[in-house]
Amino acid sequence: MVSEKRIAKGGRRVTAFTMHTECQAIHQILVFSAQIDDANKMQGAALKKEVSALKNLLETAILPAAKKAEFRGRFSELQEGIKQAQKSAGAASLQLKLNEAVTSADVAVALCQEYCVLRIDDGLDANAVREAASLVIEKHKYLAVMLFSVDEQRNKVLICAFVPNSAAKQGLGALDWLQGSLVPINGTGNSDNDGLAQGEGSNVAGFDEAMAMAKAYAAKVFAK
């Protein structure tokens, strides 16, 4: 039996296979089961592509309803595995980018600089940029830092600046430092009055100028 459906009060339609069609359905079940087993051995893009193709085939295949439901359940398990793998890969990639920001700050400190202006890996969201700044701050409490992340596809630039008390006493304010760099990227920003300021702009073409202005402003303050 393939399906059973109510068509009117007291009436139901039952669809079933006999003889040749039944043999074809049994063969299809064996083929689908083997293909899903093979898909279980795949990873990454290959797995994602295979699951998508098999799902499309399943929708048009002539199979018993119970078997279709079973295969859909197996596909769901595979898709959940894909999501978990993507999540793990994304977390590992983000951690690598955050570590790179800290390493760049290490170089600035080794050169006895009182500030650093960094372009970290492109495409990070505001939370990731702030997290990168937090990691730098945690390790280098006396270093003024400004981080940029560029998303060229969305024409967006994110900025996060932190100014420790030691730098603030020399005249470097987080919001003042940030605002100069917002102009070239047509951006807006704000500060939480705790040495941290954030902003974003919608003109990627102005990024180089924004970064140059950030460096020039900090250099001028610390040169006093």
From TrEMBL:
Residue ranges occupied by any Alanine--tRNA ligase helical bundle domain in the UniProt entry: 32-83
Superkingdom classification of source: Eukaryota
Alphabetical list of Pfam families matching this protein: ALA1 (PF26023)
Name of the protein in question: Alanine--tRNA ligase helical bundle domain-containing protein
